[in-house]
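Before the break, one more example. Copy the sequence into your notebook; we will annotate it together after we see the structure.
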Amino acid sequence: MFARYAYAPNRLGYCGPPEAGTLRGGSADEVREVAKGFSGAWPYLQVLSRMTGIADPLDHRLVESYWLGGGVAADLDPREFADELLAVIGPRAGHYWSHLTSDLGAEAAGNHCFHVFGVYPWSRLLGRGMDEHPLRVLDGCRITWATVLSRADHQVEVSAPELVWDGHALGMSEPSVRRLEIWEDGYSAVPDAAAGDEVAVHWGRLCGRLSADQVRTLQDSTARQLRLTNHRLAQAQ
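Here is what the structure looks like once it is written out:
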């Protein structure tokens, strides 16, 4: 699961070492070594491992909780998690990341959605007159849920919401239809995608099927993060 969800940003050059081929076809041991090179995701998994007592940072329970929210990380104290996380990533951060302070504890969570909206700086660039680029990055980087409507050869039509910004707050649009490639660079995480499937999408690429419970968890963790992010943005205005 780690490899499937991490492949798209890694292939695009955004996260992790330049070893996308390993993520799509490597052994478990090879994927583990590559995962350690992700300066974003790996510290989360390390901290989640320590705080939950689950020894393996790539245990499926931790990986699922990181990418989708909920799960074993849901009951962790947000401020305690933020303190533990910042102790790991803070020393590596430069002046561009001066927002990485204990104030983040108010919106922290042990998942990717918090990383996108809270740790990454992009949400702080909204409202400065050039919103299109940060909004596009935030929307691509978050994990979204989508329903496959139809399949034709190597493409699917999916219905999925998009991130929107009204000048003051972030929100989710009503689902709209878009086309996605099933295969990219000779690789597919869901090669047999079919109409009716619920799927996860990361940077415009399919990265796995979702159960009904996983869809609800991802929706809930996204809604929580947007609410807390909007609260921070409103205070800064």
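The mean pLDDT is 93. The chain is about 40% helix and 15% strand. Try to locate both features in your own notes.
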